[in-house]
Write a structure and sequence with these properties.
heterodimer, A: 444 residues, alpha/beta, Alpha-Beta Plaits, Rossmann fold, eight-stranded mixed sheet, 16 strands, 33% helix, B: 414 residues, FAD/NAD(P)-binding domain, 3 domains, seven-stranded mixed sheet, five-stranded antiparallel sheet
Chain lengths: 444, 414
């Protein structure tokens, strides 16, 4: 696979135009700021001009002096002051205002990403500017073996397929995988006509007995001395929170040494988008329709990962493909914990088909769900308690997240207020749990 | 010899075509032939070689390792002298020949030598190749006086270098202002004043009636006003003309340059042309015109390369926009589009410490030029190309063009 690069991202909706990025850049570079924030057309909106470190940089191709070149290692379009003849043709090549004349030096200047530690990002008080290291993640994992066949028949933009492929790339061949009924086997991972779609031993339990079967497999491997194999499930939210819950709860209570990954797309999407107990309040599903009497689901979602915390598992965590480093980090910990006890990883997975969102907006939905606190990212261990791994400093209103998703299109103000209050309530509870000091041991 | 992709020429259009081909076809055999003895460089760098700012060995744009990695055979010092488009063969001055599947004509341009009486009897310099630049730099060391014919980019750059090196320099230009076409009279006047301040004598709106030979390199240039300019060094910088003589009899349609359509194809099958040699659509007029600048050469080279490699994402050429980014004595003059146009459009000029001139037509930007006031040339170019309607923000644009341009960019095509 090719090389990917880390990059500075700009989220216009979070920018308040304070200009601290420009000041920080000018100070760091001792010259004109190489990032430019300008007022937008709409009231208190802001726009950005800076180098995008293009993959096919026009500035490089129009340079007559060979003074500009894209660095294969960092992806930065580097400027060589000693070769530059100050002709400014690069400023004509770039249509983004990414390279321009610095009147202090009378030479061109452009963003060099501060060698991977950009001053503008550190100075941004609203997180409108972020340093996104997805490129490094890709470089680290991109060459790992994909454990599924190409051409799985997931819907266009399927986030669950991403989760499957990423998780199994990371975990590797030394594993046994259960995929209970749902989209994950449904798209072909268990295979067709006697052929498997997965490069590790894979099986298709019932919705109801996944955790029990895994427990048996682990016990057998323990008995024959194979203590290196990850025994795991990639299950849906229905099979985990509803019809398979007794098996999950039982295995967790017994401390069975398995890794249980729940891919939560908030419903039974594979069978026609019926509601599950993790479907959020207000959601349209085929069994909670929107019409004269019903306005989507009238109950709140069950917080399954929190229920798993109450089982005192070896490890419980929530994750989202919006934040892959966080997800990878938790996968490592979850795999390690699965050799000590029940390890539970809950990954939120927007479903473009069932949620009515464009396939191109799935990752954005992941990010906004976290940025609005609709989804909380945390982890729990018995030793360390509950700890947030990525919580927004200034959460965006849940409305902003909800309005990009078709299954919430019908919501009225009262319903939106209800969702916001439940989100706030839940975050408050989790924060209290995270903040509480360790209890004094009982005196006997 | 034969190659699937044969590229004649080695400057910006050729290099971009190579890149575009390799995006799609990593393996197809490729060869790049050039009449130059050096590895690729840009003609635009040459004034800086003359001044000594850019050492000749550091102006090379691609080294041999690049050609090896790109699987392209680079052959320098090889002049194409004929093309048989039916047999798909290019013949060379040394008698050899290359067969091709796809051919790119990127032979660029050569100095145009004006028909001045006596010029053929004296020794003079031109500035188009690295050898020209090194020759001029050497001659500059022993001369005290210099005359430059032509006040285009090459002539003015050279005049500045010669003046900075201590020579007494005169520039003769037939048109009434320097850099004609790119700048209006007000902008040109600022540039002209800078040259005068630095001791360069400008003869504008004047013609050379004859040149008399002298001792060695020396000669006397006689002007239509009766002046006789004695000089130790004569530089002819009266523009360039496409190198098309080698295509005579090939059937390739030629006007002033090689005529190409909006995908840079010539009238002959499997033959493309790009860069200074090509006569392609002009954005403003829609006619086929010569616009010999790097940005159009790159764009044309990319389109040609995509076409040659069968890249299905090729989009037709929108047409070339004149662009000029010019530095003189540390100052800056920039121009894009119909910036010098008189009449037909709406012109807004702004004079302060800097000067800018914005030309609008139907509420859309068609040209922008400035002196001593930098702007984002690429953004303005994109506003022109996209024909962005500015009627809703015209005053903002005229008052704060840099900021407003960046906003329009970020909202329009980020």
């Amino acid at each position: 696979m090719g090389t990917a690069f880390d990059t500075i991202t700009f989220k216009a909706s979070s920018c308040d135009g304070c200009g601290k990025c420009m000041t920080a850049c000018a100070e760091a570079k001792q010259g004109a700021a190489r990032i430019s924030i300008v007022p937008g057309t709409k009231e208190s909106s802001f726009e950005l001009a800076m180098c995008r470190q293009c993959g096919d940089p026009k500035c490089v191709m129009v340079c007559p002096a060979g003074a500009l070149a894209k660095d294969d290692g960092s992806g930065v379009v580097q400027w060589d002051a000693s070769r530059c003849i100050d002709c400014l043709l690069c400023t004509a090549g770039c249509s983004y205002g990414g390279i321009s004349l610095d009147s202090h030096t009378a030479r061109v200047s452009k963003c060099d990403q501060c060698d991977g530690d950009p001053a503008c990002v550190k100075a941004c008080p609203t997180d409108a500017l972020q340093w996104v290291t997805a490129g490094s993640v890709f470089n680290k994992y991109g060459d790992k073996e994909d454990m599924f066949v190409p051409g799985l028949s997931g819907c266009q933009g399927c986030n669950s397929e991403l989760i499957m492929r990423h998780a199994m790339r990371k975990i590797g061949r030394n594993s046994v995988l259960a995929t209970p009924p749902g989209c994950i086997p449904g798209m072909g991972s268990v295979g067709y006509n006697g052929k498997t779609g997965t490069k590790v031993p894979v099986f298709h339990p019932l919705l109801t007995n996944t955790a029990s079967m895994l427990a048996g497999i682990r016990r057998y491997y323990d008995r024959v001395g194979r203590k290196d194999i990850v025994v795991m499930a990639l299950a849906g939210d229905g099979g985990t929170s509803d019809c398979g819950f007794h098996a999950v709860s039982g295995a967790a209570e017994r401390g069975e040494k398995v890794l249980y990954v729940c891919v939560d797309n908030e419903g039974y999407m594979n069978t026609g988008m019926q509601r599950s107990s993790t479907t959020p309040f207000g959601s349209w599903t085929s069994t909670t329709p929107v019409g004269e009497h019903m306005r989507g689901k009238s109950q709140d979602a069950k917080n399954l990962p929190l229920i798993m915390v109450a089982h005192k598992c070896a490890y419980v965590a929530t994750a989202s493909t919006g934040y892959m480093e966080d997800l990878y980090d938790k996968l490592d910990k979850a795999v390690e914990a699965s050799f000590r006890g029940f390890s539970y990883l809950h990954i939120y997975s927007p479903c473009p088909t069932g949620w009515r969102i464009p396939s191109s907006k799935v990752i954005e939905a992941c990010r906004m769900s976290v940025d609005s606190n609709f989804v909380t990212l945390w982890e729990y261990t018995r030793e360390g308690g509950l700890r947030f791994t990525r919580s927004p400093d200034r959460p965006i209103p849940v409305r902003d997240y909800v309005k990009m998703i078709g299954k919430y299109r019908h919501l009225d103000d009262a319903q939106l207020d209800h969702i916001q209050s439940r989100v706030d309530e839940q975050v408050t509870l989790l924060k209290r749990m995270a903040a509480a000091p360790a209890a004094e041991p009982a005196v006997i | 010899m034969e190659a699937k992709y044969l590229i004649i020429g080695s400057s910006h259009a050729a290099l971009e075509a190579l890149r575009a081909i390799r995006q799609v076809d990593a393996e197809g055999s490729m060869a790049m032939l050039t009449r130059d003895v050096h590895l690729p460089y840009s003609p635009t760098i040459l004034p800086y070689v003359v001044s000594g700012r850019s050492p000749a060995e550091r102006v090379i744009l691609r080294d041999e390792a690049f050609f090896t990695a790109s699987k392209c055979t680079f052959v320098g010092n090889t002049t194409a002298v004929g093309l048989d488009a039916t047999a798909k063969t290019v013949t060379l001055a040394d008698g050899g020949s290359w067969r091709y599947d796809k051919l790119l004509i990127a032979t660029g341009a050569a100095p145009a030598i004006p028909p001045v009486p006596g010029l053929d009897g004296v020794s003079y310099h031109v500035l188009r190749s690295l050898d020209d630049a090194q020759g001029l730099r050497k001659a500059m060391g022993t001369a005290r006086r210099a005359v430059v014919l032509g006040a285009g980019l090459v002539g003015l750059h050279a005049a500045e270098n010669l003046a900075e090196a201590g020579l007494a320099v005169s520039v003769v230009e037939m048109r009434s202002h320097v850099l004609p076409g790119y700048f209006d009279a007000k902008a040109s006047t600022r540039i002209e004043a800078a040259f005068t301040e630095h001791g360069v004598t400008l003869f504008l709106g004047r013609t050379v009636v004859g040149i008399d030979g002298g001792k060695g390199q020396a000669c006397t240039v006689r002007l239509d006003g009766g002046e006789a300019l004695e000089t130790d060094l004569l530089l002819v910088a009266a523009g360039v003309k496409p190198v098309v003589d080698w295509l005579a009899g090939s059937g390739v349609a030629i006007d002033r340059g090689v005529l190409v359509n909006d995908t840079m194809r010539t009238n002959q099958p499997d033959v493309w042309a790009a860069g200074d040699v090509a006569q392609a659509r002009d954005f403003h007029s829609g006619e086929q015109a010569l616009i010999g600048i790097i940005p159009t050469a790159v764009e044309q080279g990319r389109l040609a390369g995509m076409g040659m490699a069968g890249d299905s994402y090729v989009k037709p050429y929108a047409g070339g926009l004149p662009v000029n980014t010019y530095r003189f004595f540390g100052r800056v003059a920039l121009s894009i589009g119909q910036a010098a146009a008189e009449g037909g459009g709406e012109v807004a000029e702004h004079e302060g410490p800097g000067y800018r001139r914005v030309v609008l037509a139907d509420g859309r930007l068609v040209g922008y030029a400035s002196v001593d006031e930098p702007f984002d040339v690429g953004i303005m170019g994109e506003l022109i190309r996209r024909r962005v309607d500015l009627s809703g923000c015209k005053q903002d644009f005229l008052d704060r063009p840099l900021e407003t341009g960046r906003r329009l960019m970020s909202e329009g095509w980020r």
